[in-house]
Amino acid sequence: MKRAALFAYFLVVSFTGTAQSHEFRFFPVKDLSWVYQGVVGKVGNHFFLINRLTQGGLDLFIYDTVSQTGNKRFYTFPRQISSILVFERSIVFAGVTANAEQGVSYHFIELDENGNEVRRLQDSLRMSPQMNVLASPDKKNVLYFQYFKRGPDSAFIQAAIIGNDGLVKKNLAYTFKHDKERDDEPETFLDNNGNTHIVVYDKYNNYRLSTDLTINTIPFAEELMTSETFSLQKTKLKTMQIFQNKSCNCLQAQGMYADGSLKTVRGMYTISFPIARRNEIRQRYSAFTPGMIKDFKKGFAASDGGIANALYLQEMISTDSGTYAIFKLNSELVQMQEKRIRANRPWVDFAPQAMVTSRANNWNSPKMIYLKIGRDQNIAWHSIKGQDVFRFTEARYNRVYVSGDESELLTTMSLADKADEPQPVLLTIRNGEQLIEKLPEKFLTLSPLQLLSKQLYGSVYVNDRTKEGGLLLVVSK
């Protein structure tokens, strides 16, 4: 079916005098359900949009940006989609359902760029439907896993590695040390070689001054699990995310660390360890400088330690040039309002009727904090952007979505214009320098921004006033 002609909008902007630009390409789409709709991948010139609200099937809309046509496609498939893998010429959806044998059935469907089925598989796993799922960085394998407690000081992992052909490559069943009172939940990672890593470390706020870090590795080609424990003296790890670093052929655990005695957040850490265990790790701690803390505190009445501990690490994005860390810093006022919302108290009890309840330049306004950890594991730069806060009934305009690659970090958010109405913008950060570009329409609700290929991002938009929407592509130049 023919769609409306392409509406392309772009504007040229600058970073400290250097001409740069993004192009916003709007592809209007009719008769599309916007609830939980989002871009899941790009295959050739075809973009796959999914409606996660549809009951009992896989509901897709496949849009061709060259012919400007799209088609709705529906496939019999489990509602619970566990993973999506995008390849050069196909896209794979995997899902799970409970079966009568006290386990689950996993379902696998591969589609070409036109939505035609390439293959469909189904098999059983000895797990519950509440399993966890993660893919290797290269998307060649998917790990289905779950943990069970085995007494006060050990845990058990039951897992299966499934290849991108839908076939089970290896089943896992291993016991490892885990103190349910002292240790945090295990961090799990599947590397590109098919090796499974289970990292156990002390809870951030337990009584101990130091951290025991245990790395359990289950090699893909072997049956024996290796376990090694390292002591991080007078240091506590508050958060952890694991990435695979291609340049050193190693794994890197990264996150926030704190002083062991006071439990005050000090900065960011990187712990590198080889994929093939050799009883060694490399630690690098990059502290927040007094100047950084001073910047974080602007607009807040709080101590340095109070500000550092209030930082919420929203996500981390790993690239070939380093890692981005994205933080949210909320004021006590916003937190109080959220507690009242959770208690089901009416918004009118504590907020004015204006669409905007707080502007970015107000005292105690929330802010986004971005920083880049370079390849040398030092903090290369930090950047801060205050947020306008819209009232509870307009909370969709408070959503912030972040994506990026090795050269830039992009954020979609809404700022309040002079009329206190939501103006969607694209915030770009390159080397710590910010640029704000306005989208051509107000009152837009956007789905999460996704990196589809180099310098190409995708989202789904809908105008809340006109109810028109479609596919939004953001092209970096």
Structural class, please?
mainly beta
**Helix fraction by DSSP (H/I, runs of at least 4):** under 10%
Q: DSSP strand (E) fraction?
A: over 45%
The N- and C-terminal alpha carbons lie at a distance of: 31 Å
| Shape descriptor | globular
Low-confidence stretches: 1-20, 333-352
Mean pLDDT: 86
Radius of gyration: 24 Å
Please count the beta strands (DSSP E, at least 2 residues each): 37
Q: Count the helices. How many?
A: 3
Describe the sheet with the most strands.
6 strands, antiparallel
Keywords: Signal
Protein name: WD40-like Beta Propeller Repeat
Organism: Sediminibacterium roseum
Keywords:
3 helices; 477 residues; 5-stranded antiparallel beta sheet; 6-stranded antiparallel beta sheet; mainly beta
What does this structure look like?
The longest helix has 11 residues, at 332-342. The chain has 477 residues and is mostly beta strands. Strand 27 and strand 28 form a beta hairpin. The strands form nine sheets. Strands 1, 2, 34, 35, 36 and 37 form a six-stranded antiparallel beta sheet that branches. Strands 19, 20, 21, 22 and 23 form a five-stranded antiparallel beta sheet that branches. 32% of the residues are buried. It contains three helices and 37 strands. It has helices at residues 290-297, 304-310, 332-342, and strands at residues 7-15, 18-28, 37-43, 46-51, 58-64, 69-75, 81-86, 90-98, 104-112, 117-125, 132-135, 141-149, 154-163, 168-177, 187-190, 196-201, 211-218, 226-232, 235-237, 241-245, 250-259, 265-274, 282-287, 312-319, 322-329, 356-358, 367-374, 379-386, 389-390, 401-404, 409-416, 422-430, 433-438, 444-446, 450-453, 456-463, 469-476. The radius of gyration is 24 Å and the shape is globular. Residues 1-19 form the signal peptide. This is WD40-like Beta Propeller Repeat. It comes from Sediminibacterium roseum. Keywords: Signal.
